[in-house]
Prior knowledge:
- The structure is a single chain.
- This protein is an alpha/beta fold.
- The chain has a single domain, classed as Rossmann fold.
- It contains six helices and ten strands.
- Strand 7 and strand 8 form a beta hairpin.
- The protein is globular and about 40 Å long.
- Residues 1-24 have low confidence and may be disordered.
Amino acid sequence: MRSSRLASAALAVTLLTPLAAFAQDVTEPALKAAFIYTFMKFTQWPEPFPASDPFVVCVLGDPSVGDALERLVKGREFAGRRVAVSIMAVSGSTKPCRVIYVSGATPTQRAQLLVELQDESVLTISDLVGFTNAGGMAQFFFERGQLRFSIGLEAVKRSRLQMSSNLLVLAKRYE
């Protein structure tokens, strides 16, 4: 019980630190990359990954977040596999992706992506307005200068992913 409280506190400090406090040290793309990586660490996938496959995180439409994520995960492993970041156009194939961060997509592109991934065990994250309402799992937004996030619980359940309660308790809202 005590370790669970410590984990929640550590996660809260990591995720809820004001952007203004880091303005000189951490850019918005680096902060979003840190959130994405933290979401990965607090999510479980239902099926095992083939041992030789890397854990692929796809970034669609925002190369600056992709670059920041590549720097963050360089040399790291996740679930016993090398982490690979794939920076793609919004219309690219999402086949190898275990996590997808999408930004800069039109509502039509967003809808197509979410329909394509509807029953897949792929963690979907975005900064697009209405992303969780449209069927995405996590949506970034700013509130009083702080990066926050909402969680689309139905999408998480449908995907068979399991998000830690330590992460869910920090969500600003659920949709």
